[in-house]
User: Fold this.
Amino acid sequence: MSSAMQDSGIVVKPRGVMPAGARTLPAAYYVDPHYFKREMDALYGRMWICVGRTEEIPEPGRFVVREVLGESVIVTRDPRGGVNAFYNVCRHRGTRLCTEPHGTFPGSIQCPYHAWTYDLEGRLIGAPHMEEVPHFRKQDYPLHRVHADVWDGHLFLNISADPPALRTQLADLPDKFTEWRMQDLRLGQRIVYDVKANWKMIIQNYNECLHCPNLHPALNKLSHYLSGENEPLRATYMGGRMDLRPGVDTLSMDGTCPREFLPGLSDENRRRVYYYAIFPNMLLSLHPDYMLVHTLWPQAPDRTVNVCEWHFQPQEVARPGFSASDVIDFWDMTNRQDWQVCELSQAGISSRAYTPGPYSNREDLLYAFDRMIVDLHQKSGDRAIG
Amino acid sequence: MSSAMQDSGIVVKPRGVMPAGARTLPAAYYVDPHYFKREMDALYGRMWICVGRTEEIPEPGRFVVREVLGESVIVTRDPRGGVNAFYNVCRHRGTRLCTEPHGTFPGSIQCPYHAWTYDLEGRLIGAPHMEEVPHFRKQDYPLHRVHADVWDGHLFLNISADPPALRTQLADLPDKFTEWRMQDLRLGQRIVYDVKANWKMIIQNYNECLHCPNLHPALNKLSHYLSGENEPLRATYMGGRMDLRPGVDTLSMDGTCPREFLPGLSDENRRRVYYYAIFPNMLLSLHPDYMLVHTLWPQAPDRTVNVCEWHFQPQEVARPGFSASDVIDFWDMTNRQDWQVCELSQAGISSRAYTPGPYSNREDLLYAFDRMIVDLHQKSGDRAIG
Amino acid sequence: MSSAMQDSGIVVKPRGVMPAGARTLPAAYYVDPHYFKREMDALYGRMWICVGRTEEIPEPGRFVVREVLGESVIVTRDPRGGVNAFYNVCRHRGTRLCTEPHGTFPGSIQCPYHAWTYDLEGRLIGAPHMEEVPHFRKQDYPLHRVHADVWDGHLFLNISADPPALRTQLADLPDKFTEWRMQDLRLGQRIVYDVKANWKMIIQNYNECLHCPNLHPALNKLSHYLSGENEPLRATYMGGRMDLRPGVDTLSMDGTCPREFLPGLSDENRRRVYYYAIFPNMLLSLHPDYMLVHTLWPQAPDRTVNVCEWHFQPQEVARPGFSASDVIDFWDMTNRQDWQVCELSQAGISSRAYTPGPYSNREDLLYAFDRMIVDLHQKSGDRAIG
Assistant:
């Protein structure tokens, strides 16, 4: 135990010892397009993906367009309040219906080309001159649907044909995080990062703090890198918590908290930050006074767009001259430090000289995550063969 | 019949009814590089391609360089007035001879590297120090030729080894359009568009006006979208005509015509616009007072450079302060509307959700064109196999 | 013999006559990625590559980073004065250690991610928390080495596992060029060119002056293109010399030489320029008063980065207000003329119309070089099959 730890009164829990010979993933997992495609198909193509917040489509007709696995998807709200998602593809000649990233439909969705028109539940309601064509029936040409669902304000899509329920994927997380009342929070800031690294590298970086003393001295000053505890890896998520150091109120530039804590949080949870990677694309970081959400949008084996959002209590965001630069600047700085080493790792792993390396006992979640990824590829490979 | 049509006195001719189950082309025809290559080889690599106008090389030595199927080709006029085309490749070390897009040769073509020199008919007339090499004979190293020919001022190239005559490809078109005296017209304006869509999509867009009321309200106000008549598809072209609405003199911003009509046009043809797609790359639009020519230059399955030219009577272009913004602006606006929906269709068709859709009876030429394209691929496929 | 030569008193030595039917290389050697890869593997991946000068790492801890065959390599000097080269890859998670192109290590090399630390001979000397992992031994994780060696101040790397000595590759060159005392010279100027041509084209361009009268009139005025003599091609280099015309002191804008000649040069060598291509990537041009070095860094079949350096006697470079624009401008102009025709040749050779052409007797080294390249591919092909 370091003297810094004894000074701070932090209790370090021992972690499982790595099996002899445990090694990080071979380079192909980070650079090979076939591996990337397999992960996109087996994870992003089958699991629920977090694509934003319901506050972005508050009323009927409001919409956002999201790019999921190269597919443009319209997410909108119908007059009965339901959330619907459709491929952005007209049934006549395939034309994209919607060219704006967000906006409001005037009660229906009209194709700019030949004016085929759909209602907000995707039914074809207008198709000029098609009535002259024998056997043509409007009901045969609804928009193609994408599955959509919501968890405490988080919007999820699933582009597979017949997915299990979102609740199945989330397992016990909704119960675990009820206390934070995430559905009440509102967006304060969004920063989009373009990271030249594999998506898994960002998840691995997120799930260990061994790198914190060296890379994030400011973070390590607020929350000791050996503090807290990890949960064992689950089928659809992994995570743990870290403790704030004595005298620190939240993760901000100076450790003070000018905002009220989230209502309903236990005293214990007011002293902790929870970090959960919800596979495949959501990183949920719950602080005493705000929620940080990263969503990952893999573009290539070596490139991931990372959308980072800070959410606060609505009365904070509504305040005239609202600013949360104390926590936005803190995490923006920390994010950039992380993306830089992820990019350096991506570059190095592409080298012919790279060989998998050993894990420390502090990289227990990564070891488990990597094994899960290896299993996934082996199963996908079997499927491809079998 | 719409009331707008009854108001305008337009006679709508019924068109052939689509066969049951007729569907637009599968996505591969627009996105698959193999399909693209097959079309380039079988159509662009074998047919005559329109590459400009003879007015660009009026005297001996004047030249233009064109890029055809990735090949740089020099087109120039020899002292006897003949039009010659050569690959832009020196016979010594392959060096490009010509780096300017147009200009004038000083009586011969000299390679910048080792000064090999060719006359304007492509014969090697100078090769420093090669006389020391036994068996070397200048007559063995003429420039490689590309076939060139002319129709009423339109310049055509054919890069296949032994093509049929240009007249064979043009069939009855020279007779059909004699009245417009195209050889007398002169370039007034050129605009080059870079369209992120497959070349066939631009041809399909050109050959139906079902999209006009929705996409081109200005055009539809001057020429009713249901007016006119199509010819049945021919082996090497397709087209038809549309009528100007009463009180409209030509397709211009306000429908008036500040220029004289082309001399020799019948009264009937002064009330019509002819739209002919001459395969594979020329769109010829004949108006009462001007000629509009689009040439298509496919770059990739999803990208086509489109060169649009407006040609007028020479005394118009020669007039001090000549401007034809009334028709240039009109078609530039209309072009941009078309390219945008072509790009939206290209984007949508790339989606996994795209499925071929039904044609309306107003898309009769497209149906025929698509069948021809399917046949072409089947034959090319057979050739590839057999 | 030309009258210009008779005027200048240049003696033209006859060169070997080309065998009947000798032809330049087919296009694949310049455009096919498989050919490129084979050359990279068999030449750049096995031979010693010139990567700079030892003056760039004068003291222990000073380093440069070079990109060799896509591999980032750290070259540094250890406390005992030795030159060491390492792959820029941490043994823990593969992270790039060094992000600056040059600089000074503070006695050791530390990874920015988890702080693994190496000494300047590549030994792992720090790895936080790894002592908790059973069986982990620091001595198992040194940095991966790249072979490094030095010739008269020129720094060479070899990325193959077990290369022959640098001296073997250099053969008799060290003896041949002792007189120039290259180890004493210092960098005066560096210009980096990005040439859109195959690396072999730059070597071929360098080794014939038949193109000089047409392309480099200024050079030809100082040194007649038919002067001098070539050595027969050797296994690892090829070259020859050219003579300065009477009254010309060096290759500079006006042929005068404001610097002292290199000490120790014979009278004969003060009237000559030596041009040696040392395979695979170094072009060494020795002038009476300066050394010009090009190093080639192939990026793709059709793209080569070319680093050009001018080196002078140290007292020249140290002089206040040192300028050598007379020779820098001269060669920069000449370089740009060369790269332009190389790019034109690359473009032309990519044409379907390109066919190999005949050599003149003045292209004797190119003929020999091309034969060596053909042999190399045939042997590599055999290896690939066998």
User: Anything to note?
Assistant: Residues 116 and 127 of chain B are 5 Å apart (CA to CA). Chain B touches chain C at residues 70-72, 87-97, 99, 112-115, 128-130, 132-136, 141, 144 (CB under 8 Å).
